[in-house]
Description:
It contains 17 helices and 14 strands. With 421 residues, the protein is an alpha/beta fold. The strands form two sheets. It has a seven-stranded parallel sheet with strand order 3-2-1-4-5-6-7, with helices on both faces. A seven-stranded parallel sheet has the order 10-11-9-8-12-13-14, sandwiched between helices. The longest helix is centred in the first third of the chain and has 26 residues.
Amino acid sequence: MAAFWRVLYSLAWYLALPLAFFYLWRRGAKQPDYRKHWMERLGYYPPPPNAPIIWLHAVSVGETRAAAVLVRALLQRYPDHHILLTQMTPTGRDTARQLFGDDSNVSVAYLPYDLPGAVRRFLQHFKPRFGVLMEMEIWPNLLHGAAAAGTPLYLLNARLSEKSLRGYLKVRGLIGPALKKLSGIAAQGEDDAQRLRQLVAINPVVSGNIKFDMTVDADLITQGRQWRQQFGNRPIWVAASTREGEEALLLDALAQTQLPDNSLLLLVPRHPQRFDEVAALLAQRGWVTQRRSTWLGQTPLPTHTKVLLGDSLGELAAYYAAADVAFVGGSLLPFGCHSIIEPCAQGLPVLIGPSSFNFADAVREAVTLGAVIQHQTATEVIEGIGCLLSDTEKREQMQAAGLAFVGKHQGAVQRVIALLP
């Protein structure tokens, strides 16, 4: 029966392939990198490095940044090996190049689409000693193909929300047999492990979340502090990783809520293809805006500027370093929230909206500890921003709580490394 499901799944992939390339071409109109490296998506690559390979897959930006600390740990444990880091998105690939562009021991490529032939070509070409999938990257043909090729494959930093579990249970006949091909699974928390057990008869190790072990780039911290000097003596807050529809909600709430007159908003949309859209929204609403792409950070920002639009890649840590308070996006609307760990690690008070299913355990604990405040509406978020910008003592309390929250959970990388061969 499992083989029947895989045949249907593979057939669906072959039928959808023209649509997949049409999607890439269409996305390329706004983000040209979508039109590059198409042959890699079919399993065709330049010659591999002349060294044994460890392969690590991190689908996009957040997973790639989290994987950076794991890559460094792998290079330390396996100094004679080369790391192949794969992604599915151009932004993830760009992030990997920013992080490892000067490191000859790390190469970057796209993971092929989950077609049997493409998977087979990928594995035969690179012949990895073993592979690592980050978070919940489950590709049935890839997992079966790795098992057939004798390539041990591990799922690390795995997280599974209730919503995702319900979706996977509908295709358990496809997903369950694939998961059984894994050589090991490390779940972020006990709740994630329990949901994985509901999905398939496996017993994951609970390792914690390796994002707590991420080290913030010191150069970006310095850059953010230099920006802060150019901003002048103003209360500053950052709205980070905002998603479609959230900017409008925040701007509506700002129009009805009084923040300090000289406050500055650092608005950083999650996806680069939306930079122009958000800039147009700000102009339509009459907000005096400076785009990061036209401000080099070396001259004072005009005092009448109300919004600095973060239309740049790889600088989120700098925006956090320049701010007094952070709102983390993907939380006002049902996107599940983006990571609260990085701003907490920088000692920022953090506010989020009602949607947090992607990081439910972490958010619940951070709220209990006083590092994060969760609100139900955009108006409540803006009111909370205003209160924190005017309350130094409360910000310092949340700063201490955030640093303690992150410190409590560090060490996951060493636990997952111990699982590998």
